[in-house]
Design brief:
By secondary structure, this protein is α+β, with helices and mostly antiparallel strands. It is 38% helix and 21% strand. The radius of gyration is 20 Å and the shape is globular. The structure holds ligand 2P0.
């Protein structure tokens, strides 16, 4: 497994220089899901979650301080951001400014290589890269834990993309400022496991219900939410043990049951949130058949219809071919464990 502590290279801007920094981060896919916040403003989850950072779909983000600006300027894939996307980034930059004791506005240029808002974790790579670049541009030097906490405030799953390989995000206890300090991700060892994740993109369009709204509705109305959250604690303990011994079969079984349980909580929400489409179910059926054929293959789905299939690297081409056959209208790619967030250039 490639796992790096990426954050020790953050440098303070040199005196008198125009600060600016470029950071890159990769998305992550949760094997134990984060679904539901106990504090919306601080982005504190109800449950711990555990993920694998990918080696595909990086986000690259450039942040520089604007000498003249009266407001933040944000470019998303080259186009000016507006509405909710701009608001979320500005609120995040306000937090960084508060930490840095600065009132200066920023120019943010961020480029995703993954479809935005399609349940492919663009907000995880996006806010991890933004946290690292903005912290450096404003002259902060957070350690990895502080950076994970900061990224969490942008988007919960971003707390995990600070780290490469496998990462565990602690929900932490309590509420308020104390809880804020205790909710961060850290790398976990994977017992030498180096799996592939075959990603079946059956629909790359934006989702009808944002994950933020879907979580809110699930926590507020689904009678299955609390039982799932309780079961997820056991899943996490089992997952850590399975990862520790590098047991792909157990890791896959636990990941699949945890994801299906999460979707069950949404289906029981009022009104229901259903991200899974007919093509999703077709791929799930194919994954079951792969197992019947003796291939270790296990599915997980996030806030969208796309399916990620965990398998051995040696089986990944066979799994990809099977999934491609099952969903010929979609696209399929093979990912592996990827690196943590890192700075490409530091303040000049
Ligand atoms: C996860 N997902 O653990 C879960 C599983 C989707 C399904 O984290 O509201 O974009 O910004 O904290 O991180 C997607 O939610 O939500 C997500 P916010 P986020 O990966």
């Amino acid at each position: 497994m490639r796992s790096e502590n990426p954050v020790t290279t953050v440098l303070l801007p040199k005196d008198g220089a125009a600060p600016g920094a470029v950071a890159v981060a990769h998305p992550n896919i949760a094997l134990i899901k984060y679904w539901g916040k106990r504090d919306e403003r601080l982005v504190l989850p109800w449950t711990d979650s555990l993920s694998m950072t990918l080696d595909v779909f990086p986000t690259t983000t450039h942040v520089r301080l604007d000498p003249a600006g009266g407001q933040d300027t944000v470019l998303l894939n080259g186009a000016p951001a507006a509405g909710e996307a701009l608001r979320r980034i500005t609120v995040f930059l306000d937090l960084v400014r508060e930490m840095a004791g600065s009132a200066r506005r920023a120019v943010v240029d961020t480029r995703n290589t993954v479809p935005t808002g399609a349940g492919l974790a663009s907000s995880a790579s996006g806010f991890a890269a933004l946290a690292l670049a903005a912290a450096a541009a404003y002259g902060l030097a957070p350690d990895a834990t502080a950076l994970s906490r900061l990224a969490r405030r942008g988007s919960g799953s971003a707390s995990r993309s600070i780290f490469g390989g496998f990462a565990l995000w602690h929900a932490g206890p309590g509420t308020g400022a104390d809880a804020d300090a205790c909710s961060y991700a850290e790398p976990v060892s994977s017992g030498g496991l180096d799996p592939a994740l075959v990603i079946a993109v059956v629909n790359a369009g934006p989702k009808a219900v944002s994950s933020r709204e879907a979580m809110r509705r699930t926590v507020g109305t689904s009678p299955l939410f609390r039982p799932w959250a309780a079961a997820s604690k056991d899943d996490l303990a089992d997952m850590r043990a399975a990862l520790g011994r590098g047991d792909l079969e157990a890791v896959g079984e636990i990941a699949e049951r945890n994801a299906l349980g999460m979707h069950a909580t949404m289906l029981a929400a009022r009104p229901a949130v259903r991200y899974l489409s007919p093509a999703t179910v077709t791929v799930l059926d194919r994954v079951l058949r792969l197992r019947a054929e003796g291939v270790l293959a296990y599915a997980t789905m996030d806030a969208g219809p796309n399916v990620k299939v965990l398998c051995r690297r040696a089986d990944s081409e066979r799994v990809a071919a099977a999934v491609r056959d099952a969903a010929p209208q979609g696209s399929v790619l093979i990912a592996g464990p990827g690196p943590g967030a890192r700075l490409l250039s530091e303040p000049a």
